Amino acid sequence: NAGVTQTPKFRILKIGQSMTLQCTQDMNHNYMYWYRQDPGMGLKLIYYSVGAGITDKGEVPNGYNVSRSTTEDFPLRLELAAPSQTSVYFCASSRRENNEQFFGPGTRLTVL
Amino acid sequence: AQSVSQHNHHVILSEAASLELGCNYSYGGTVNLFWYVQYPGQHLQLLLKYFSGDPLVKGIKGFEAEFIKSKFSFNLRKPSVQWSDTAEYFCAVNALKDDYKLSFGAGTTVTVRA
Lengths: 112, 114
What we know:
The structure holds 2 protein chains of 2 kinds.
Chain A: E1 4-7, E2 10-13, E3 19-25, E4 31-38, E5 42-51, E6 54-57, E7 64-66, E8 76-78, E9 87-94, E10 102-103, E11 107-111
Parallel strand pairs in A: 2-11
Antiparallel strand pairs in A: 1-3, 3-8, 4-5, 4-9, 5-6, 7-8, 9-10, 9-11
Chain B: E1 4-6, E2 10-14, E3 19-21, E4 23-25, E5 31-38, E6 45-50, E7 56-58, E8 64-68, E9 73-78, E10 87-95, E11 103-104, E12 108-113
Parallel strand pairs in B: 2-12
Antiparallel strand pairs in B: 1-4, 3-9, 5-6, 5-10, 7-8, 8-9, 10-11, 10-12
């Protein structure tokens, strides 16, 4: 099993550009999550999904969108990049809502 | 969302020293508790978890944590650290009341000097 994979690993965007962060898991987990990690702030939940076709907002959803068309994939979309979105983004998945979450390697995004 | 507090931002130790990292959470209902570790340049990995039962939980790499319900705490311990324990450690909590969304502490950076 590859577990949770994320692409790209690094990206630099200009203000106003858009991009999609990809996340795929091969563990057949129903639950998937997107977090951002900022220095000294821990991880903040952006969006999560409890299954294909179902998504919901987390703690910091503004400026982001998600979709979940399949069990395996949970892409995160930034429509109009802003410097405040400079962060490290982690995708995670779990079998059930209260189970251990498995994390991907992260995407380091810089918006200039 | 509930809050999770980690008492130490940065801890510096020598090899063979004992480690204890504090974690407190704000919610008084049924919770699940986790400690994750992030080694330099790597993704988060689970160290240990507590759902129910024995409040003293043993995890990987010699780590253990104790759940003290009356103190809303879940402190992480290791009797003798190694240089390879240099990492960032995150306490996390989820609860039925919050639809089991995971709330993370700010993290503690542990530096072990050889």
